[in-house]
Amino acid sequence: MIVIPFKFEFEFATYSDAITLEEDHTLTDQDIEDIKQQRLNTWLSIIRGESIT
Amino acid sequence: MATLYWFAGSGTYATASNWATAAPIGSFTATCSTGSTAFTITSGTPALAVGMTIKNATNTIVGVIASGSNPNWVLQANAAVTATAQPMRGATISGSAPNSATPDNVVFDANASGVGYTVTIGATFTAQDFTVSGGTVTFTGTQTTNFRGNISFAGSTTTWSNTGSFTIVPTTASVTIGLNTGGTSINATVVFNGVATATLRLDSAVTLSSGRSFTLSGGTLSLNNFGLSCSTFSTSTATAKTINFGSSGTITVFGSGTVFNLTTGTGPVTISGAGSRNVSVTNATTTAVTVNPGTRTESDAISFTFSGLAYQLTLTAGNYNSLNFSGYIGQLQNTAITVYGDYTLGTGGQTFAATITNGTTFASTNATTRNIRSNGKIIPFPLIFNGVGGSWSLFDALTCSNIATGVTWTNGSINLNNNNLTLNEFILPSTAATFTFGTGKVIIDSTSGTSNVSGGSGVTYATATSIYNFVGTVNSHTIGLGFTGTNVPSIGLPASAGIINLSGSANLDTTGFTGTLSLTSPTLYNTIITPSITTLNASGTLTFATTTASNTTVSVSNALGGTSTALVFNAQSGRSITLQSNITIGNTRNTSFTGAGTVNLNGFTLTTGTVLGSGGSITMNNGIIVVVRDDVAVGGPVWVDNAPSKVDFNDATGSIQFSASSPKSMDTNTTSVLPTIAQTGSGNFTLTNTNGTALNVTNISSTGGAVFLGQALTFYFTNFTLSGCAFSSANVGVRSTVSKSSGTVSVSNLTISGINAVGGAIWNAFTSNGNVNGGSNSGWNFTAIAGAVNSAFFLLF
């Protein structure tokens, strides 16, 4: 397994997460960045009390 | 335990045979019992339909959906195979675990065709390891799920909508359970209720949905440097529990009410982690928020960051690490808190409750400097700095409300970091501490009525210029600073009226001040007391001093009145106090010369009642010392050295004048040359040295009062022009000796008694010049003899 930790730091809070992938995953770097951003957006929506669709 | 694969969605979870023991092969597979089995699905993709086939783990068709409609279906096992089989994962799992005593590992795999499926949690169940290994899987329902082993949604697209408690309940001692949600937010209350030695380790961020709480009931929650986000976080049960933040783990709480509470369980709570142990509090509503970190110490205190809407915030009284309100815009309630880390106030509309009875204490004992950043907020509550070995630095200007609030500094060191600290009251430490100003200042504001600055005897000022500026009109300042070391704090007064009550030690400049300055035994270094002040009172002892490192100057344009003022000059060895004006103290008051340094009159006049010489020296520089008191009032000499200590003279210019109309005397054992001694009063004046050694005198004069010399003493004169008075030994029966090395002394109108005149000089006291031989003299020429060069010479023949 490949674990890719990542972190987004804000003045008010920090989002620390990791993406776990199979060794033979086929995701591109952009795919991985998209996953990071998607997770961050979800987290931001939750802590801001926004509805998640 | 076995590892079972749920890939068919058939039957009940409670029946082990409904699970496969191997990973699925090919497309849709299933295991199920023979005959009809009811199952339920509330959603799923693709939609189920009667006629769908079901395969087992070896890809053998084992049944078909015989009947039913969403969400209730009937599976007919071992039915005929249709040619149009479709993958299917929709299922109900319910009941207790297949083996509740030793739960199985369960795996939800990816649908072979890539379509998602839904698993409805129909009843409470328990699993060991719980893995969603791939695909798009939605868990729904309302039932409790219990996990005793690792939980991983990594690699899948999991939706956890089952609202039953998501409970992690390891029962094995020292076991560590990993939780990797793979980006899935959990729409359920999450409970970690392990035995005390069990650990829940986050292997990814863990985020709970809105309104969902995390409860730590037992064991160690290891954030493993990831973020845990939940609506509220609390503890429960009597089991010991630990939160290990690691070096950078964080907890974010985003609900309202008591969002973080470590006191709701009776068991002990341990906080660990090498980092600052951060909890972020944000609230998208205006509902009040309370945090309660429980009983913490400096080593396990938790840091909090606050943000969100304008909610009222209460920090339960207790200990905190860093507090960061930079993103907070609500009203902070006033509680008694202790802060060990940094302290940052809001950049926006943060306000404070009206009640200000409780102070905030900064108590770090850590060598790392803690920063205080007010962001322009005026602090309405008292601040206390009390941490042995701690240090604090102002990130920006810090202003305390001028309404009876201020700073009490007991321990630790403070660095203004070039910023101003404005307050109403300031109590400084008597213990060793360092105060660094840079270009910053302490501004004492008495606008509300009064101000008070006191203490500081243990304070070392790191910079040469450390200024306390007092501001506020028509009000009263009480100042009593102390310090240690060689940098002296400076006091600047308001350019207005008011009352200044000054004690302690400082540089003083009253320029611009037009009120009343009352001095109570202060020690002043560089001093400017300007005539602008309307009233100058002084009581106790006024000391002008130097440090060991710097000289000082003194300018006092007003007479130092008062009822019990004494003046002390205390210059350190090699240092000097230089007058920049005349100084006059009360005519019954004493001036003492102490220390080993120099007082430079610099041509000015010091007027004093009496003088005590205990050390150091005086540079006259044509200055004058006027001694106005008499021996009778004093009960002894008006000038006396504190033998064997004494005050010496660095030059013989200027004069020392004794002006009393009653008897007065100068008893000195100085080894230097006395400047001209002037008897300016009508009472007798005696120059003596009870220490018994000779004195060197520049000259002596009188305006009419008698001049006596100590009996049996020798006085070496540089010049001798005394005239117009009685001049005798203090005990006529025991001669005093005057000596001059050369030249001719010609006195007039002297009545000389008991004086032996010696040295290379000719001592002429011709009666023709009005002199009178009072008897018991020798060495004087009272009668003019032509060619006489030395009366003593002629006595030999």
How would you describe this structure to a colleague?
The complex is a heterodimer of chains A (53) and B (797). With 53 residues, chain A is of the alpha+beta class. Chain A has one helix and two strands, in the order E-E-H. Chain A has a two-stranded antiparallel sheet with strand order 1-2. Chain A is elongated, with a radius of gyration of 13 Å. In chain B, the strands form eight sheets. Chain B has a 45-stranded parallel sheet that branches. Chain B has a 17-stranded parallel sheet that branches. Chain B starts with a strand and ends with a helix. Chain B is mostly beta strands and 797 residues long. In chain B, a hairpin with a 2-residue loop joins strand 4 and strand 5. Chains A and B meet through strand 1, strand 2 and helix 1 of A and strand 28, strand 30 and strand 33 of B.
Overall 3D form of chain A? elongated
For the secondary structure, the number of strands of chain A is: 2
Unreliable stretches of chain A: none
Radius of gyration of chain B: 47 Å
Main interface: chain pair and counts: A-B, 27 and 34 residues
Weakly predicted, low-confidence segments of chain B: 7-14, 22-47, 55-59, 77-99, 787-797
Which oligomeric state applies? heterodimer
What is the makeup of the main sheet of chain B? Answer: 45 strands, parallel
Number of strands of chain B: 85
- For the CA atoms, what is the radius of gyration of chain A? 13 Å
- Which structural class is indicated by helix and strand composition of chain A? alpha+beta
Largest sheet of chain A at a glance? 2 strands, antiparallel
